[in-house]
């Protein structure tokens, strides 16, 4: 219906469309009803509007002494079966979940499955390549993470920040992920078969003879540079593709309520991927046993695994395209301001000045240092127990499968933890688990000899027991990370504005993640040089682990307070927007002026209107 309003104040009308239709006689014309000698009370809808200039009736129609407006109260159609103002239509559901939500959650779960399937294969393969290679050992890992992985991660973050300012989100996604897929395919079919020709082994032997065995680790990086490049690209797949690309995309298309419900469940499918990928690694590891002499079984296995990585990468790109094409983005708060584009240095200064981002960075760095302090020591024991690539890779396949099973169970429990105890408790579980299991692992290494006779009864040596306990420590820590730590970290990004999300995630996930691992590696290098060996440093490493975990817990508590405050602010803004029923004001010239007032609120005086106190007026 259209009505010409002579306004002095707020129209407060009953939301009863049936009664409104009975009061408006259909036989009367609109103008007769509006300008009847006895005004009719209209109770069919609740209208909000801006006060507009007075209008008068002319014989030839409506002609204002000042500019007139027509208020189109479109929701009056509710009397004809249309929804009332503020009333939302019921959306179709399946198993209690809206179909629109399922169109987001299922593809995201499949993407996470494919990404972690690839990461498991890459993670297990990179360790086999650099640890079991000729002239290398587990001692290469601290140097590799510090002097190769960290600089490349920083370089990528700077490049990503530049690209984020000039590329669209879709173009940025493809620009980042496609080079990874091409490299892993090229490594399996080109770089590894040519490794004997492109690795400077003779030069590395000469340098080792001159510099001495203390430089075995740094020289191993030069000796097997293509394997080290694979190691770094596999590490970047975890920090870039998982943390920046996937979680950044998930945060873009989901709401906080959807995240609380479904983020923990993403890992269910993803950790089924861990189980299957672990079986895949073990299958290719055992495949080499059945090949004849003189055949490079590892090269055949590597080609097979890299082919799977490329195929999964293509599936990831297809799912990303499908979601962007067929899934609508959620409505964010209109009051949230977009920050202007910033350069690299401005972005870094902004992130450093943010306490919220600083606490998030502390969580990521603390996890990296803590897990690295335990993991490198465990891998040195692992190579001592399983020196051949075949045995090492086979054990890593079993390790990945165990991690997948444990994480699957933790994922089932995580939704209960989020619902029952909230974000703050969920964020403190991972550091607690890592602390307790880490103390157990270091205690067995330090005090394992007295248990040797007891262990012998079970057919185990102290070394094998340390390998198994270290594996359990890694399994429990990683399962807590995947099921609780990662969802908590990603939820913390959602209330932030888009600029902080993009650049904050690039700085935290790409730089802080390897910075944490490199920090742990630097600590180990310092301890080895100071105390002579990793074993002699074990008591001190345990003490450092406790300090790091306590700092982690403190940052988690601080972030919980800030996250809760941001969530309350966002919910309040959205509630205010839902309460603000907008009615477009159309002038006679046909231009539209949206009403800025809301139900039960009175707009300010328009220019030229009376300044006297407004009183309600019926049509």
How does this structure look, described?
By secondary structure, this protein is mainly alpha-helical. The protein folds into 2 domains: 236 residues, Growth Hormone, Chain: A, CATH 1.20.1250; 228 residues, MFS general substrate transporter like domains (Growth Hormone, Chain: A, Up-down Bundle). The protein contains 18 helices and 8 strands. The strands form 3 sheets. Strands 1-4-7-8 form a 4-stranded antiparallel beta sheet. Strands 2-3 form a two-stranded antiparallel ribbon. Strands 5-6 form a two-stranded antiparallel sheet. A hairpin with a 4-residue loop joins strand 7 and strand 8. Helix 3 packs across helix 14 and helix 13 crosses helix 18. The longest helix is centred in the last third of the chain and has 58 residues.
CATH third-level topology of the largest domain = Growth Hormone, Chain: A
**How would you write the strand order of the largest sheet?**
1-4-7-8
Beta content comes to: under 5%
Cα gyration radius (Å): 32 Å
CATH A-level architecture of the largest domain: Up-down Bundle
Organism: Gossypium tomentosum
Protein name: ADP,ATP carrier protein
Region (Disordered): 588-619
GO molecular function: ATP binding; ATP:ADP antiporter activity
